[in-house]
Amino acid sequence: MIQEKIVSKRFGKVNPLSIDSYIKYDGYKGLEKAVSNHPTQVIDEIEKSRIRGRGGAGFPAHIKARALANASGPKFIVCNGDEGEPGNFKDRMLMENDPHAIVEGMVIMAYATGAKKGYVYIRGEYQNAIKIMKATIQAAEEKGFLGENILNKGFDFKLEVRSGAGSYVVGEEFSMIESIEGKPGRSRVKPPFPTDKGIHDRPTLINNVETFVNFPYIVLVGGEEFAKVGTASSTGTKLISLSGNVKNKGLYEVPFGTSIRDVIFQLGKGVRNNKPIKMVQLGGASGPIIPEYMLDMSIDFDRFENFDSKTGTGAIIVIDDRYDIFDVLLINMKFFVHQSCGKCAPCREGHIQIVNLLNKFKTHRATEKDLMSLENLAKVIQQTSLCGLGQTSMTSIISSLRYFRDDYFAKVRY
Amino acid sequence: MMLLKEILSKYPQDPEYLIEILLDYQTSKKTHYISAEDVSRISQHLDIPESQICSVISFYTLLSMEPKGRYVVQICHDVPCFVNDAANIYEVLVELLGISEGETTPDNLFTLEITECLGCCNESPAMRVNNQVYTNLTPAKVEKIISDLRGEVK
Ligand SMILES: Cc1cc2nc3c(=O)[nH]c(=O)nc-3n(C[C@H](O)[C@H](O)[C@H](O)COP(=O)(O)O)c2cc1C
Ligand code: SF4
Ligand code: FES
């Protein structure tokens, strides 16, 4: 089987609203093991596992964890459940199906780093997940896995759910910190990084939901064992949100190194009505659009790095040949017009110009000069934007200019 | 106005909880919005300027200072839904409700909005009505949802 289930192994087997059901399924065993060792050993195992963050950028998890552990005074841990990138639903599925695994991952990190307070930030659209996570935190507190003197080991950790209110950019770390402080989610200039100055200027560790769910497993089996799955640069498994025109849309878990084609055809059972694939968008609106002939590419952070995007979230959106690439690009770009926080000009003004240019192509009014303008403007936005939104939003444009150039020429008026 | 007082008392008196308070209060109101009067009461309670509250409300799309219909219908239009007939579902809603994006029906029952991805792309097309998500939409399904909501009010 091409699926290998680590983070989704309890889906459908545990009752998400029952802590006893979770405990029966090895729940909180990772935490028990973690607290029987020294905190630094937990981070050592995470380092050996070589796990990289599952929120998109693929940053090595142990580096941030160690930075937080080395900081003194009050510090915070945040679970990023904002999942605003269109095409992704993995974090919602984790929160709805195995919420205690997220709490366990966070408590393990609290033990490892000395943080006493944490937040689970969940986008406001995910009302069901918010309800479940709140109930989960309460149940974990009642059983002594959260709160004061956890497992009688003399460490405390309090956890709170924070709700988003409809903003994509809040998924970005500094915007999220602002939002947790009760403010509009506008990013800050880095450095300093959140592990130096985060919530209320205190050191803050932010990881994605799926990243946290991996931690109990890593502690339980050991870092080296974990790293046996996957590839040299990307260890472990990846949740894949498969959507679009495939027969079996859904959530799948595969080891890193699996090809995109296998996910689409073996797990997704191919395209509905057996239509040809026109394009596949990876990661979400800020991810590249690739043609059918590139589908043998494997799911791997090193491959994804070619695209400077948040491809690493694991969304795969399949689009058949009934659709025009300019419609898809316009939906992506209008999304960014809407989601720009307005703090810096290249992003605030640039996306509007990109939409205008794309509309010219869509309606056959574009000239060769427009093609050059589009190419240049995309680069300017990518290189001069303040935060990750504008730095990654051009990925679909830039990749389409590379792989679908003929579609552009077909629309140019000579 | 008892309601706002009740909601304020549920949260620590700390500006950190501003967004939670606004969301909670707005959801509890039939008109789904924060009025100027609400802003000034919350500003007094949390001891922060009204302008700060207004900037928060205008930043987040789920918060509003304009009254809305009893049912806020939000249809998703991102790529995974778009390639699964979402544009057609939007047209069906326009037809059924007699309004287009951003408008409210004259009886103040429905507001129609377009939303970003609801994280249900595995069951696209999807829409949200207040806090309830509906997925795998077809024209027939949408018609039933709207007529059921109309029936609920009668
Ligand atoms: C505009 C923007 C939106 C983002 N949205 C999310 C998100 O919804 N969820 C997420 O986990 N990370 C998101 N990220 C990435 C986070 O900033 C951060 O890298 C991540 O939460 C770190 O967790 P990880 O190391 O476990 O991946 C976003 C980044 C940017 C620039
Ligand atoms: S790149 Fe866009 S979202 Fe990021 S700070 Fe600048 S305007 Fe705001
Ligand atoms: S694109 Fe519509 S729910 Fe994700």
Topology of helices and strands:
The complex is a heterodimer of chains A (414) and B (154).
Chain A: H1 19-24, H2 29-35, H3 39-49, H4 61-70, E1 76-81, H5 90-97, H6 99-113, E2 117-122, H7 127-142, E3 158-163, H8 173-180, E4 204-208, H9 209-221, H10 223-226, E5 237-244, E6 250-255, H11 260-267, E7 277-282, E8 289-290, H12 301-304, E9 315-320, H13 325-339, H14 345-362, H15 368-384, H16 388-392, H17 395-403, H18 405-411
Parallel strand pairs in A: 1-2, 1-4, 2-3, 5-9
Antiparallel strand pairs in A: 5-6, 7-8, 7-9
Chain B: H1 2-10, H2 18-28, H3 36-46, H4 50-59, E1 71-76, H5 79-82, H6 86-97, E2 110-115, E3 127-129, E4 132-134, H7 139-153
Parallel strand pairs in B: 1-2
Antiparallel strand pairs in B: 1-3, 3-4
Helix pairs in contact in B: 1-2, 6-7
Bound molecules: flavin mononucleotide, iron/sulfur cluster (SF4) and FE2/S2 (inorganic) cluster (FES).
Iron/sulfur cluster is lined by residues 169, 187, 340-344, 347-348, 385-387, 389-390 of chain A.
Output the number of helix runs of chain A.
Answer: 18
Number of helices of chain B: 7
Identify the CATH architecture of the largest domain in chain A.
Answer: 3-Layer(aba) Sandwich
What best-fitting shape of chain A do the alpha-carbon axes yield? globular
- CATH level-3 fold name of the largest domain in chain B: Glutaredoxin
CATH topology of the largest domain in chain A: Rossmann fold
